[in-house]
Structure formats: structure tokens, C-alpha cells
Fold this protein.
Amino acid sequence: MSVSRATVAGPSLPSSISQIADAAWRRIREEAELAARAEPLIAGLIEDDVLHRARLEDAMAAILARKLSGTDLHASLVLQAIDEAFAADQSIGAALRADLAAVNERDPACRSYLKPLLFYKGFQALQTHRVAHHFWRNGRQVLALLFQSRAAEVFAVDIHPAARFGQGILIDHGTGVVVGETAVVEDGVSMLQGVTLGGTGKDIGDRHPKIRRGVLIGAGAKILGNIEIGAYAKIGAGSVVLIDVPERCTAAGVPAKLVGDCGCAEPARDMDHQLPIHV
């Protein structure tokens, strides 16, 4: 469904992230112009989502409104809510740019700012969560849960709107990612499909994992309970982690055990999923 900006007026642009100074937005527009010329079949989509927009926040809002809308949820209403969140909290736009840079830097299939913006559901689900989290923090829990529900249906990524995420996050592929209410994911974390940051049962209160900065979480890993994964640690694919993991260590297995150091300075950036040779 096409989303017309004429339907809902967008917020004014703060001078700190003006179009002139926004290198990420300039790059996206350049990539979009090339893509529209190279693929005429979707030129209209690219023009509507990107080239007809004044800034990155407008483009992101239009894309998410188109994706999240449905027969019972009009795109103009979704767009209005997303615009409101961007206008009220400039940190959402800053995180959007940091997340774009993370995907471009770490995903060898990408090397683009336009591709994740238009097509990568892990990235789009994360931006939806940032909007939902804004509403949750501001006492609009029903609206926040609506965004969570739609993101789970559309992107197959289920993040409770109370969960806290830092900036520069990569959710690669995204399918099957589940993040619980009291989970914390700090800056610079990378995770792949099928990751769960969950509880261990019916505990109440603070019951979900705390993932510190720069952690790499392999595909299908399950990290359960109010435990801490230390900065720059690595979690092996398919692991079930029930214990704290010290910083710069690797945990792997079912149940996971500490199997060595992480093998590199910044595992989330290097995206090296190999385990120590003796495992």
C-alpha cells in the first residue's frame, strides 16, 4: 500500500540532522536513483518510499507504514504514529543510522544502505521495535503492543516493546528472533536468526538476559534467564545458555559451557562464528 505524505504532515527536521549534514541520507538517495534506473519495474516503489521523501526518517516511516498496514489498520494511521515517535525522540533517528551502518559493515551480502532500508526484515523489525519502545515508555502500552504484534506477523521477529536496545545493532535475517520484556541489548551487538533472549519459566520481574556491548550471538542460540553475557563475548550457534558468560569468552553447547576466549577483539563486528579449535 502506497503511503502519501500529503495524508499526514511530517515533523520538522532538527538542524542537528539536517539533510545537508546527513551523509547516510545522501548515500541512500544516490543508491535509490541508481536502483530506480536499473530496475524500472520497481522504480515507482523506490520513488514513493525514498526519492519523494525529504529525509531518512520520512523514508523509514513510509516503508514501515506500508509493511505494517493491513485491512484493519490503515497505512496513514501507522505513518502518523511513526512520525510522532520520530518527532518526539531524536535518539530513534540516531539509532536508525547506527543500525544501517552496522548492517552495511557486518553483512557481506549487503554493502549498501538502501537494501536494508527497503528489504531487510531484521533491520525493519528492529526499527519497528524502536517505535514501539517509545510508546511503551510513554504510557501508551496498547499502541506499543499493536506494533509488536504486527512486527511479529509481518517480519517473524517478536520483541517485547519494553526490551531495551542500544545502537549499532545487527539482527541478520531475523526470522524467529524472540526477545523478552526485561532483556537488555547494548550497543554494537550482532545476532542471527532464531535467537531467543527469554525467561526460564513463569518468574516475574527482571527475568531476561542482559547482553553487553559487542556480543556476537550465533543462529538459533537460546539465552535464558536473568543472566549476563559480558562485553565482546561470543555465543555459539544452537547453544542453550543458562549461565553468566564473562567478557571476551566463548560459550557453546547444550547446555552451554565456557569453551575459550572469543578469538578476536570485536566478535560482533568481525562476524566470525568459529569456535575454539579444541571444542
User: Anything to note?
Assistant: The CA atoms of residues 53 and 124 lie 18 Å apart.
